[in-house]
Design brief:
The chain contains ten helices and nine strands. It is of the alpha/beta class. Strands 1, 2, 3, 4, 5, 7 and 8 form a seven-stranded mixed beta sheet that branches. The protein has a two-stranded antiparallel ribbon with strand order 6-9. The longest helix is centred in the first third of the chain and has 70 residues, at 4-73.
Length: 335
């Protein structure tokens, strides 16, 4: 028979196990409660951050809307001024999608020429060049507008840089001016890319390329350069270069001083450019304004929409552009 002490001793382990199980459940419940509290706090913080972002966007939306309205109210490009110098700026890389794109530049030029009080047109240039096509669009449009409005002279004023495609545009002006220290010229064509065939070979990567057409894989960065294609590309670049040279000769005519290096792609200081006949002298926008006998300068440059500028700053469009360019891995021709 078991006495009472034996029963108590046998019952103690079960009691301890029950207590441990209860404590374990309590700890689990506390853990779940703590996790829930943390999740709620995180959720609350996220909502606060989201609300702040929304408020910021709404504030910026209102600000840009007010700026847009104020700009419209202050627009002088359609009212009578009694005489002014019309300015169209060409800044940065000349390319489709950039601030200096042919469509916007030409729109500004059209408004500048069309305004009855525009005495002279000034191209304010500070650009290293860019797309041959975009540059040619602008060059041709200047000649077209000059034929429509023969009484209005066009001046190109180069500040820091007027090279390559920017100079291609400048030669359509009646006269070109710069500072003695400006960078002018660079009459040439370039196309650059990379070759990774050695790298992927070292990494043990096999290149698999499928094309229809003998030269469809032309300029593929993961394949060796074919000499026949190299020669073909050189001829293409020379053709575009010849077009550039022809435009320079057309615009500058007998003002050019014969020099074997003029069309080599070299750039010159403003002082050297004057000696070569690439520019006509050293003047600023202020000088031209005073010589025109007017006091007002009206900017006809097409400005980027403030909303596009703001939302574009987020970087999504830039990131997509970079990804697309990297995936293409093709050389592009530039002045």
């Amino acid at each position: 028979m078991l006495n009472d002490s034996n029963l108590e001793q046998n019952a103690q382990p079960d009691s301890k196990n029950d207590q441990m199980a209860i404590m374990s459940k309590q700890i689990d419940m506390m853990g779940l409660t703590l996790n829930q509290v943390i999740k709620e706090q995180r959720s609350s913080r996220r909502w606060k951050i989201a609300l702040r972002v929304v408020k910021y966007i709404l504030v910026m939306f209102v600000v840009f809307a007010l700026i847009g309205l104020s700009d419209q109210g202050a627009d002088k490009t359609t009212i009578s001024t009694g005489g002014h110098v019309a300015v169209v700026s060409i800044k940065g890389t000349i390319a489709d999608g950039e601030q200096a794109n042919a469509s916007d530049i030409n729109k500004g030029l059209q408004k500048a020429f069309k305004h009855k009080d525009s005495k002279v047109i000034v191209l304010l240039i500070n650009s290293p060049g860019g797309s041959p096509v975009q540059s040619n669009y602008v060059n041709n449009e200047i000649y077209r507008l000059k034929a429509l409005y023969p009484s209005k002279k066009v001046y190109a004023v180069i500040s820091d840089t007027g090279a390559s495609g920017a100079y291609f545009i400048a030669v359509a002006a009646d006269e070109i001016y710069s500072d003695p220290a400006s960078i002018v010229g660079s009459i040439g064509v370039t196309a650059a890319g990379f070759g990774f065939e050695g790298l992927i070979e070292k990494l043990g990567i096999e290149r698999r390329k499928f094309t229809s057409g003998e030269h469809k894989g032309f300029l593929d960065p993961f394949s060796p350069v074919d000499e026949a294609e190299r020669e073909l590309f050189a001829k293409t670049l020379q053709t575009v270069h010849d077009q550039f040279i022809a435009k320079v000769k057309e615009g500058r005519a007998d003002r050019l001083v014969e020099n074997s290096k003029m069309f080599s792609g070299l750039f010159w200081s403003g002082e050297q450019a004057l000696e070569l006949g690439l520019i006509d002298g050293f003047k600023t926008l202020g000088d031209i304004t005073r010589e025109a006998g007017v006091s007002q300068v009206i900017d006809f440059t097409v400005q980027q929409d403030p909303f596009e500028k703001f939302f574009g700053s987020v970087g999504a469009s830039i990131s997509l552009k970079v990804i697309n360019e990297l995936s293409e891995q093709k050389s592009t021709i530039q002045y």
